[in-house]
Specification:
two-stranded antiparallel ribbon; peptide transport; 14 helices; 394 residues; two-stranded antiparallel sheet; mainly alpha; transmembrane helix; cell membrane; MetI-like fold; globular
Length: 394
């Protein structure tokens, strides 16, 4: 029997190296610090945060803010309501080489309004609706889902049947009816209306998490210590559902901006004299073949905002999910293996056909000076005096 020692690490050694690397990376860190570290390592999420922050900053500082009669001017020379004289026949004055913006980098519409100012105002309104829908829908979804999941029984049945009724009504139909009636009152109120009917998915997810967490030991310990139900819900169980709440809130916000754009495109969203990204596309749909730049910019901002929010949600999901692990590189694994000590040698017990052998009961038994262990191939019968161990010397 041949015995050979190999120095290559096996599967168990690689697993130990991966565990060692992960433990060293998270050693001495709290759960919040671990989540932040994982999120900051997600390149797509970080790039999306930078792009989204740039879009929001550009929109709210360029043309200023006008909300409930309060007007704060911006640094751009035109507002979305001004009609300056046409320049360059209304075509965009921005060029990439040499890089210059001109007076109307996004061009002008058929009446002469500056498209850059109009798109920035539309971005403000769409972002406002997106944030308000996310906050309102998350609040109602978390409260209803938490109460239904914690108390269960009759309370759960009543709240979930009410949720099922809201789900059966198409959200775009509700938004069209209420948006047409209340859209002229401003984008903020439109966001509240949409948020009041967009909480159903959040409520179901939170309910499922509460049904699982309410049976855990720390909840029983809180009950035994005399904690009230409100404290158990909001101080003990709810912090353990933050991951799923944050992730689904971002996905809800991404869907909200698409819904608002669709409603405004159909004429049921933000009403004149205000505007939004969907309304800009709707107003200029007849000029698609003659002035396509009127569609490029609002469509580009809709896609950019929705993608950024989705990528941020993806990064948050990976950060909060403990099962999402980053595979270490080969260099990091080798370094961890050297730090953990020498590798365990692997013994090759493959029999060699070159060694002298004898045959016992039809099976080959190898006898050589390099035999490490011996195994009797005959079945054992305890208590039978006729079954004697095989003597290797024979």
């Amino acid at each position: 029997m041949n015995t050979s020692i190999t120095e290559e690490p096996g599967t168990e050694t690689q697993a130990l190296a991966e565990i060692s690397i992960e433990q060293k990376e998270t050693e001495g860190l709290s759960q919040g610090q671990i989540v932040r570290r994982r999120f900051f390592r997600h390149r797509g999420a970080m790039i999306s945060m930078i792009v989204l922050a740039f879009i929001v900053l550009l929109a709210f500082t360029s043309v200023g803010v006008s909300l409930w009669g309060i007007r704060i001017p911006g640094w751009w020379q035109y507002s979305w309501e001004e009609i300056p004289p046409k320049v360059n026949n209304g075509e965009p004055t921005m060029t990439l080489w040499p890089l210059q913006f001109g007076d109307h980098p996004f061009g002008q519409d058929e009446v002469g309004r500056d498209i850059f100012a109009v798109v920035m105002r539309g971005t403000q309104q769409s972002v406002m609706v997106m944030v308000i829908v996310g906050v309102v829908a998350t609040f109602f979804g978390v409260v209803i889902g938490a109460i239904a999941g914690y108390y269960g029984k009759l309370t759960d049945s009543i709240l979930m049947r009410f949720t099922d009724i809201i789900i059966t009504i198409p959200l775009i139909v509700i938004g069209s009816v209420l948006g047409f009636a209340l859209g002229s009152l401003g984008a903020a109120l439109l966001g509240v209306v949409i948020g009041l009917f967009a909480w159903t998915t959040m409520a179901r997810l939170v309910r499922g998490e509460f049904l699982t967490l309410r049976e855990r030991e720390f909840v029983d310990a809180a009950r035994v210590s005399g904690a009230r139900d409100r404290r158990i819900i909001f101080r003990h169980i709810l912090p353990n559902t933050v991951g799923i709440i944050v992730v689904n809130a971002t996905l809800l916000m991404a869907g909200a901006i698409l819904l608002e754009s669709a409603l405004s495109f159909l004429g049921f969203g933000v009403q004149s004299p205000d505007t939004s990204l969907g309304k800009i596309i709707s107003e200029n749909q007849a000029a698609f073949s003659t002035r396509p730049w009127l569609f490029w910019w609002p469509g580009l901002f809709i896609i950019a905002i929705a993608l950024c929010v989705n990528f941020i949600g993806d990064g948050l999901r990976d950060a909060f999910d403990p099962r999402q692990k980053k595979m270490p590189s080969e260099r990091a694994m080798a370094r961890a293996g050297r730090a953990s000590g020498p590798l365990v040698p692997a013994v090759d017990t493959t029999p060699s056909t070159d060694a002298p052998s004898v045959t016992v009961m039809g099976a080959a038994v190898y006898t050589s000076e390099d035999i490490v262990s011996y195994h009797d191939i005959r079945p054992e019968h305890p208590g039978d005096p006729t079954d004697e161990p095989l003597n290797p010397e024979r």
